[in-house]
């Protein structure tokens, strides 16, 4: 893979990660969990829009990167989302999160090495 390929993959992973934060923001901003509340929640609609754009980007990426190389990179969202949640909302990060994140990064590096 070329360096630009990694950039596109990381952009896609970042978009999905930010989408998760937008879903959390949507959940926190709803006084009642109901379909009408969800459909009029601007944070939820923004998250859906970002997921749609990211999905289109993912399909475009898969035109020139093998799925066996691209898909392991998506697991980096499991690293980014807890860290972003810690930065944005002060959610706790336990040693298990750090250890698991390290294993995920090692796995991605192993799967991506050729």
Q: What does this 3D model show about the protein?
A:
The chain has 114 residues and is an all-alpha fold. The protein contains 6 helices and no strands.
In short:
By secondary structure, the chain is an all-alpha fold.
Layout of secondary structure:
Blueprint lengths: L2 H27 L5 H5 L2 H20 L5 H8 L2 H13 L5 H18 L2
Q: How much of the polypeptide forms β-strand, as a percent range?
A: under 5%
Number of DSSP strands? Answer: 0
The total domain count is 1
Terminal residue distance: 9 Å
Helix-strand makeup class = mainly alpha
Descriptive keywords:
80% helix; 114 residues; 6 helices; mainly alpha
């Amino acid at each position: 893979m070329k360096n630009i390929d990694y950039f596109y993959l990381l952009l896609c992973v970042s978009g999905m990660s930010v989408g998760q934060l937008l879903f959390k923001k949507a959940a926190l901003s709803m006084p009642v969990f109901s379909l009408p509340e969800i459909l009029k929640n601007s944070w939820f609609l923004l998250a859906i829009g970002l997921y749609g754009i990211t999905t289109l980007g993912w399909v475009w990426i898969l035109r020139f990167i093998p799925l066996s190389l691209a898909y392991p990179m998506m697991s980096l969202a499991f690293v980014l989302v807890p860290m972003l949640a810690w930065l944005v909302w002060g959610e706790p990060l336990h040693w298990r999160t750090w250890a698991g994140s390290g294993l995920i990064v090692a796995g991605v590096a192993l799967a991506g090495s050729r």
